[in-house]
Predict the 3D structure of the following.
Amino acid sequence: MLSTTTNHTLATLLAASLAIVALLSAATSAATSADDKHLSVYSSVAVYTVPVVERSGLEYVGLLELMEPLGRVSSQSQGSHWTLRYNAVDAEFVAGRTRARIRSRDFELPAPFLIENSRGLIPVGSIDEVLVRFLGAAVNFHESARRLFIGGAGTQVSFQMDANIPPRLVLNFTAPVNPSISTEPGKLRMVFKRDPLLSPGSQSISFDTKVITQASYSESNGDAELDIAASEPLMASFSNNRKTITVAAVPTGTTPNGNAGIPESSGGQNQPPPAAANSAPVPRRTVVVVDAAHGGDERGAALTDTIAEKNVTLGFARLLRHELELRNFAVILLRDGDTVLTLDERASAANVTRAGLYITLHAVSQVNGSGVYTALLPVEGASNGAFHAWNAAQAPALAVSRIVAAAIAGEMQKREFAVRASSASLRPLNNVIMPAVAMELAPGANGVADLISANYQQRAASAIADAAASVRDRLGVQQ
Amino acid sequence: MIPRSLLIGVATLLAVVIAMGVYLRHMQRQAGELISPAASALPVPPPATGPTETVTLYVADDAAGILRPRSIQIPLPGGRQQRAEELLRALLRVYQQPGSTHALAPASDIRSIYLVDPGAAVIDLNAAFADQHRSGILSEQLTVNSLVKTLAANVPGIQRVNILVEGKTRETLAGHADLTDTFDVTTIEQAESQ
């Protein structure tokens, strides 16, 4: 029997544990909800998402993040003044003020401009006006759904009901699409996260069949959604180079498992839907942690008198996020602003995600070629049985890390980058439990100017993303 | 009575001696100013005492991203620790020459090397070595590998190496290469041979 003191100690420990769990849950849910709000941008140059933050009850986005994938962008913060240059267009904002200036012309923002950690934030309601002034192109902003279409970006959909037995609904798109498809009782749901799908004109279309009764379109939080209502379980198949989706009732004797999407069939759009028993689930997304090295007071290498490594790595990380997302990876940026993170914090933050891959990005001014590095493990500290010491946590994943590094070097060489794969005693590579590589981007023929060139970074990011996709099956953990 | 001509001669000679003393002092000051700070900051050259030996330095080549072995002959003292220090100073002199394949600042120096049996060495760099080192993963790693591999190749029995700066642990060499942990000679040699 336990003594009173022991009981008291146990109760205290239990209460403390519960408090910690509650705190962690609250923090997790807060982080999740913050991550959820985003703006989708569709343009001929790039398709990407930008996080939306709430300040004083209003929604804001980072202007640098919004503009960066569209061209060459640089920003500077001096006191309450924040300037941004997009290609050759200059803009000036003042923290707390609604008056702003782009192309030497003043205009009013619907809410005050904000500066947070040298990051300029504009109200979501001003995005279309700001972008028109920067780009000089047509901008179509669905503000309530936070979907932004630049230039002529947009995919149309048309519906064609084939009332034969069994009835089939054929959806024809003007461009290839890649929705995530799921089923629930009485409904097949297609969510378009990266496709610039536009409303078919009417929010809801009814069909004169007993099985498939209605198709409805909606959009919110950067996504578009098509729901097909039916009286029987449905399944969907792709054809015509993913420009056609055919929805039909599941043949008798098979049961959909909640994920009704199936890979593109080899035939044309009119071939009958294959049996659900042969269907394969849409691939789940592997999580990649992208870590822009340095940040805050820790500027990294001085690449020139005015360009710090920390800024180049951040821009590069955002481009890499975009390229990875295009290849159906889920991406976590450890640093999405000019913030300070210690090496231990970076390693811990990466490890809790249980991601499939960790990539840390560096830049260097010397024209000696780029490098892809895996951990050069030090003499291991005290281990506990099967558990590795903190300084050698990477050990079990090192073999896969080397495969990833070789793949990245190969893809970069294909794109005519001078690159070598090697190992380095670079933290936090050795503290990360998942496959982990470091990329040090070096300038090409144009010298340091390459490092801030969106085109140069884009080529490198594309190579890394292609390499990650080529070894996806080795990365394991999926979301 | 001293002749007047003799007095004049002695006084003239005295004036000449004083004038030459002043001039000499002036020339000494000028000579002192002509010695550049960079030259004065260079490491002290190795002692000429001790037999001359052939050693292998592993010299970093930034352009190729590798270490290249280079045999040189240098006088080495008898003591194991002094021998290790002179060895790495010889390596630094290679990096401090004009046109070096891996330039290090002129003021870079090895403060001391401690050989701790069994098989451990601690290299203590001066502040200028780290503060003026070029920042970058490749550049910093090549420096670390060069120091470790040169030491291990010429001082038998060294298996592990720690690097300090001004006698203290420093997080990184110049923002990248981790100096908080112990370098394993075998691991570095294997990485170099890849």
